[in-house]
Design goal:
Organism: Mucuna pruriens (Velvet bean)
Strand content: 5-15%
CATH class of one domain: Mainly Alpha
GO biological process, one term: maturation of LSU-rRNA from tricistronic rRNA transcript (SSU-rRNA, 5.8S rRNA, LSU-rRNA)
Structural class: mainly alpha
Number of helices: 8
GO cellular component, one term: cytosolic large ribosomal subunit
CATH architecture of one domain: Orthogonal Bundle
Family: Belongs to the universal ribosomal protein uL29 family.
Shape: rod-shaped
Distance between the termini: 86 Å
Strand order of the largest sheet: 1-2
Number of strands: 2
Keywords: Coiled coil, Ribonucleoprotein, Ribosomal protein
């Protein structure tokens, strides 16, 4: 018996494959009987080929079944366990990229070092070392009197990735702005962008 070609098996339907499997198993049973009863040596050498053919047919059947299941579960939220990627036990228990989003505070440094995350290592380090600098000046004009009341408060501003020297310059600029507000309130509206 000639060996089966797997590419030919892939073109057959499941019913045809099951029929072929049944025939091969029957042939294997006959060959085993011949082996016990002391049959011809050419029959004994066929056992290996038939067993291999059975394995090939079973493999093609299972591959077709898996492919059909993958197609059925393609747009579903959850996959059956045997369709999920095997990988390793540690990788399977690792948090997903969306669960691993970066923590702003320095408390969770181990999250920063995690490999699978939405941001790259470089991006996370930049955001850690150069956090948002948030400055704004709130001015409220009193009903009576010409001097405005002012206070500093934090608001959302664009991120600046700069050195400590520039942060010091910012603090200087804020103190100058405060003195400007006291003496020249109109300059705040024209000269400063909040």
């Amino acid at each position: 018996m000639a060996r089966i070609k797997v590419y030919e098996l892939r073109n057959k339907t499941k019913a045809e494959l099951l029929n072929q499997l049944k025939d091969l198993k029957a042939e294997l049973a006959l060959l085993r009987v011949a082996k016990v009863t002391g049959g011809a040596p050419n029959k004994l050498s066929k056992i290996k080929v038939v067993r291999l053919s059975i394995a090939q047919v079973l493999t093609v059947i299972s591959q077709k079944q898996k492919a059909a299941l993958r197609e059925a579960y393609k747009n579903k939220k959850y996959l059956p366990l045997d369709l999920r990627p095997k990988k390793t036990r540690a990788i399977r228990r690792r948090l997903t990229k969306h669960q691993l989003c970066w923590c702003r505070a320095g408390a969770a440094q181990h999250i920063l070092r995690a490999k699978a995350s939405l941001k790259t290592e470089r991006e996370k380090k930049k955001e850690l070392y150069f956090p948002l600098r948030k400055y704004a000046i709130k001015v409220s004009m009193p009903a009576s009197g010409s001097i405005p009341i002012f206070s500093t408060r934090v608001v959302s501003m664009p991120a600046f990735r700069v050195s400590k020297m520039e942060c010091a310059k910012d603090m200087c600029a804020i103190s100058q702005a405060l003195s400007t507000i006291i003496w020249r309130p109109k300059n705040l509206l024209t000269g400063m962008v909040l």
